Amino acid sequence: MQRGLGDLDELYQDVLLDHYRNPRRTRRLESPDAEVDAINPFCGDEIHLQLLMGDGRVSKISVTGQGCSISQAAGSLLAEIVDGKTPDEARELRELFRGLMTGEELTDEQADRLEDNLALQGVRRFPVRIKCALLSWSALSDALDKVSPAG
């Protein structure tokens, strides 16, 4: 059975609403290795991100905040995909996500690596909302620079 575009939009909307209503990895971390805040001054969205590193990987991540459903769902989706990744892997995912938001053509393999974060691809139809989707990724970038400066 082939799914129509309307079905795919509905599926993506369900993923976003689930992450907005039931955000993942929101428990504050004791003694994080990095802690950053990101704020979108245009709309007031806020993200608070904490990282705990272990064996060269993100061993724990916490993403909390307040704002629109897109920024908050994006933070939850980011927390799920980045957990367990090396800083370089997380940076690669950030670049793939940024490409998705700016309309770059992704290969099937690249799209697969973004997992449920693909649910945010519809945001790019609303340019003013792209910053909402990228806010948690900006916070992640700052946090990664604190624990593992990019080379």
Structure description:
The protein has one domain (5-147): Sufe protein. Chain: A (Alpha-Beta Complex), CATH 3.90.1010. A hairpin with a 2-residue loop joins strand 2 (46-54) and strand 3 (57-66). With 151 residues, it is α+β, with helices and mostly antiparallel strands. It contains five helices and three strands; from the N terminus they run αβββαααα.
Helix and strand element order: HEEEHHHH
CATH architecture: Alpha-Beta Complex
Stretches with pLDDT under 50, minimum 5 residues: 1-5
Q: Percent of residues in helical segments?
A: 40-55%
Tell me the number of helical segments per DSSP (H or I, 4 or more residues long).
Answer: 5
Strand content: 15-25%
Residue-averaged pLDDT, rounded? 92
CATH topology group: Sufe protein. Chain: A
N-C termini distance = 47 Å
Rg result: 15 Å
Count of the separate structural domains: 1
**Which sequence of strands runs across the widest sheet?**
1-2-3
Main pleated-sheet profile: 3 strands, antiparallel
Top keywords for this entry?
three-stranded antiparallel sheet; 17% strand; 151 residues; Sufe protein. Chain: A; disordered N terminus
Topology:
Elements: H1 5-21, E1 34-39, E2 46-54, E3 57-66, H2 69-82, H3 87-101, H4 108-113, H5 127-147
Antiparallel strand pairs: 1-2, 2-3
